[in-house]
Write a structure and sequence with these properties.
This protein is of the alpha+beta class and 161 residues long. It is built from 5 helices and 8 strands; from the N terminus they run E-E-H-H-E-E-E-E-E-E-H-H-H. Pfam families: AHSA1.
Amino acid sequence: MPVTNVTHDIDSRTLTITAEFAAPPARIWQLYADPRQLEKIWGPPTYPATVVEHDFTPGGRVTYYMTSPEGEKFGGYWVLETIDEPNGFSFEDGFADDDFKPIESMPVSTNTYAFEERAGVTVATYVSAYDTAEALQKVLDMGIVEGASGAINQIDALLAG
């Protein structure tokens, strides 16, 4: 499994996931930069993602929805902040309604994804920071650790295919 470590810190309001992949950083980068590949790894296995908009540039927006096993759709969005191809990128990630407008009552995270080659593997570090401890606790209670880990763990299969 690619995920090697998961930690969360209520005091710093962060969730950090570390994973390792037998592919160069440029290949891992491409998974996020290409909307069709992103669809295969963004949602957990039982909640596949459909990317609607994908402007992978600073200030650009990515919109998507995940579909539950029952067919229910849950929207989300990214607002890209920085792009450092192929080393990583940062973005704001939030929950969205059916029109991809932010749901104000739901947590928003600031995310930094970094891809670094070490000893022939790419170490990916995914850090999500929240404005409040309550916001982090809310997504933890919603199952973000399991969902994000399940999504990241799909990457090996995509790389092998």
